[in-house]
Automatic annotation (TrEMBL):
Protein's UniProt name: PIN domain-containing protein
Domain of life, per lineage: Bacteria
Lineage, uppermost ranks: Bacteria, Pseudomonadati, Pseudomonadota, Gammaproteobacteria, Lysobacterales
Xref: InterPro entries: PIN-like_dom_sf (IPR029060), PIN_dom (IPR002716)
UniProt xrefs under Gene3D superfamilies: 5'-nuclease
Domain annotation PIN: ranges: 5-131
UniProt-listed Pfam families: PIN
Amino acid sequence: MTRLVLLDANLLIGALDGEDGNAAHEASLSTFEALVADPDVKIAISPLIRYEVLRGLDEADVGAVNAILNDMKEFEVRGQEAVRAAEVFRKARQTNVTLDKRRFDVFHCVCAEINDLEILSKDVDIAKIQELMKA
């Protein structure tokens, strides 16, 4: 059975636009290469992740990275994801959990949940968001 894995922008940027000698970027590249090499894994992104990756590139060729992203499963973002993300964000505020409202992490977690995707990210807020989603 195929594992669908949502890769967050920070992991993709580290893998595709990483700095030589940067341990975090090398770890992202290693994770990415292992997933690509696994025949049972299909990498997924959302249009928001595509935007974040392309906007965050410093050194890599945007066209080349976009071509790599085109080989990934890109799922549609619908109203139900927006409603659920807003619910999770409000729950965080009600329980005094601090989340950066300018980041899309809540949205990515919700998209993964609704689309039955595993999520991989280097962001420290992901575990906190997933706990809020379970409560």
